[in-house]
């Protein structure tokens, strides 16, 4: 757990949103991510780092569990569009506006 825990610094609410670009993430999970970006408030005292109480918390989590309204900060910083939130993940790859 110590090894795994030390690498959780790469899992944060802003970096989790980058899973939107991953073809290995299911469209259903991407839909959940969009819902979280639009509705879920951050509850983390340290949004830059995920803290797992135990390994089961991590193993039973979905990528959308790490995403919330603050997850678009990285998109803003790099001037990336998050218009994808208004469209279904099925069309993200084919839509030239995204």
Description:
The protein is mostly helical. The protein has one domain (2-91). 33% of the residues lie in helices and 0% in strands. The longest helix is centred in the middle third of the chain and has 13 residues, at 27-39. It is globular, with a radius of gyration of 14 Å.
Helix content: 25-40%
Strand residue content:
under 5%
**What order do the helices and strands follow?**
HHHHH
Terminal CA distance reads: 38 Å
User: Any idea what the shape is?
Assistant: globular
Number of strands: 0
Low-confidence stretches: none
Biggest pleated sheet: none
Q: Count the helices. How many?
A: 5
Give the radius of gyration.
Answer: 14 Å
Mean pLDDT: 79
Count of distinct structural domains: 1
- Secondary-structure-derived class: mainly alpha
Give the gist of this structure:
By secondary structure, the chain is mainly α. The protein is built from five helices and no strands.
Give the SSE layout:
Layout: H1 2-6, H2 13-16, H3 27-39, H4 55-59, H5 73-77
